[in-house]
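Work Package 3 committed the consortium to producing structural models of liganded targets before the mid-term review. Because experimental data for this complex are still outstanding, the team generated a predictive model from sequence and the ligand definition alone, so that downstream docking and mutagenesis planning could proceed in parallel. The input record is reproduced below exactly as it was submitted to the modelling pipeline, together with the SMILES string for zinc ion.
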Amino acid sequence: MDDLTARGAEMIKEAQKILVFTGAGLSTESGIPDFRSPGGVWERYDPSDFYFDKLISDEKAREKYWQMSTEFYMTMKDALPNRAHLSIKALEDNGKLLAIVTQNIDHLHHKAGNSPDKIIEIHGTAFSVSCLSCGKKYDRDEIEERVNSGVKAPYCDDCSGILKPETISFGQAMPEDKMAQAMMHAGECDLCVVMGSSLVVYPAASVPVHAVQDGAKLIIINRDQTPLDGQADLVIHESVSKALGQMVER
Ligand SMILES: [Zn+2]
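The resulting structure, written out as tokens with the ligand in place, is given here.
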């Protein structure tokens, strides 16, 4: 373990432009459960109920969606960044951070103090809501107040359109501009550090793949194995906050 973190620290020291790629494993230590893990929301809800097409066409599905989504949001609303998030903030302070590409919707990179223009949320954010018809944006907490007061599926004040948190649902297209930005940075970085992602969700996982193809070094820190472990220069199967905290402190 110490040899591995020493190597990681050395690679970080040598790198000039680091692309950080983060997934759910980064936030579990902030108390946000990985929704795919045992006890996660998908044990109590059926994901097939939440396909984008169904949300658009079926009011009952929307009501169920808001129930699930509210429950999930409550687990992350007051969560605080952990040592791993703060280590990534330190990389920005040291001038080494090119960008953070995150699969997380929990806003913790923002809370850690990273510049918003460095954070690319490729799966969207749970902290804002928008109208699918006119695009009007709402603060999540304002909409949650409506839900708490008994509104089962909220609608737009201006046009009565469907309101939805700005997260990417199953069957919903990825934001093209964000994916393009992420891939551009993957081509520019000299080191890509994957943290807490199992790298099984595409197209998100194509970001580190592209980084390696374009000559960047790759570090993977994840509790479990990933399909890209064989292509990485360094793999650490360990708690992200522990491993990364040690590396950056070095
Ligand atoms: Zn609207």
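Reviewers should note the following from the model. The chain has a mean pLDDT of 92. These observations will guide the Year 2 experiments.
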